[in-house]
Amino acid sequence: MRANIVVLPGDGIGPEVVEGALAVLTAVAHHFNHTFITSTHLMGGCAIDEMGTSLPDETLNACLQADAVLLGAVGGYKWDNPDAKDRPERGLLALRKGLDLFANLRPLKLYPELMAASPLKAEKLTGVDMLVIRELTGGIYFGDRARWTDDAGEEWGKDTMIYSAGEVRRVAEIAFNAAQGRRKRVASIDKANVLDSSRLWRKTVTAVAAQYPDVTLEHVLVDAATMHLLSRPASFDVLVAGNMFGDIITDEASMLSGSMGNLPSASLGEAQNQHGYPRGLYEPIHGSAPDIAGMGIANPIGTIMSVAMLLRHSLGLEDEAAALETAVARTISAGHRTADLARSGEPSLSTQEMTAVIVQNLQGKEG
Ligand code: IPM
Ligand code: MN
């Protein structure tokens, strides 16, 4: 296969973890005889510095032409001024919106050898295997917003949580379809005891559920969900949530795996690439970690596992995706750790060293 992949390293540790992911992608191409043509573009803080905008038109256009997009992370102290006109995060939101990527898939599988790295007891973690589907182009992230000062000199800020039934339906369908290929359970997260947008969410998800009689639906209030994620994490299969609730619960859920540095994500919409698969955006769920940027110690696994998702969802390369996931699992079970995963006293590998072991563990058709 020949595929065009746009690469957006971004800021902070983004370029470091993307370098690791590209080394792995090159190894996959070699082992399985594919041609992946990559082109690197600016997005985030680096784009503000060099182009004066967090999402240059040239970058968005390149993404629109690509088969898939691989992103590192955006943001950093330098661009943190809350009154700035543009911010790295704005570029990321504009990219998700510009590509109409309304469904963000965040799978969480645990590596048995890392259970000790999780703050939860191992007995709670046995059997944890969930997929969070986060709505990504609506809700409070994209509703009306304003900042103003009233006549009395008081400052105000406003955001609006807003969903149409159609926006809820399409993401709910993705969740139910995913559940059919898994343990056939969907937990829908909302705050329907208080919010109207959540009442519409719940009503719409319930209606979608009627088309999937083989899937069991439970509605969980978001506050209770954060509790259940700690008290009974293994009971969850697929979770579906609006943009902000999904953002919050996926950071929480990531800690079950010991480090959010391990977790990949795929953002998908309806647009297809030249191969007839969704043109997705793939990124680790972690941020740009400015505190360790440039030190070469970031965990590349979240980005490498995002490459596996890219191969599977945007290129239909299931064997390649599975081979990569196996290589990562082998690396972890052989005891290799980056600093975020190592327990105190345990030696840790650099980003490049970890990547090299994963590449070694990758076996292609010939091996
Ligand atoms: C994420 C991040 C982003 C989000 C930020 C960087 C805008 O936290 O992908 O989860 O809130 O969506
Ligand atoms: Mn987040």
- Report the average pLDDT across residues: 96
For this structure, what is the CATH homologous superfamily of the largest domain? Isopropylmalate Dehydrogenase
Major pleated sheet? 10 strands, mixed
Domain count: 2
Instruction: Supply the CATH class of the largest domain.
Output: Alpha Beta
Structural class determined from secondary elements? alpha/beta
CATH architecture level-2 label of the largest domain = 3-Layer(aba) Sandwich
Share of residues in helices? 25-40%
Strand line-up of the largest beta sheet: 2-1-3-12-11-4-5-10-8-9
Distance between the termini: 20 Å
In what range is the share of β-strand residues?
Answer: 15-25%
Q: So what's the overall shape?
A: globular
Low-pLDDT runs? none
Specify the number of helices: 12
N-to-C SSE string, H for helix and E for strand? EHEHHEHEHEEEHEHEHEHEEHHH
Q: How many strands?
A: 12
Which value, in Å, is the CA radius of gyration? 20 Å
Bound molecules: 3-isopropylmalic acid, manganese (II) ion
Brief overview:
This protein has 367 residues and is α/β, with parallel strands linked by helices.
List keywords for this structure.
12 helices, 12 strands, 39% helix, binds 3-isopropylmalic acid, alpha/beta, 2 domains, Isopropylmalate Dehydrogenase, 19% strand, ten-stranded mixed beta sheet, 367 residues, two-stranded antiparallel ribbon, binds manganese (II) ion
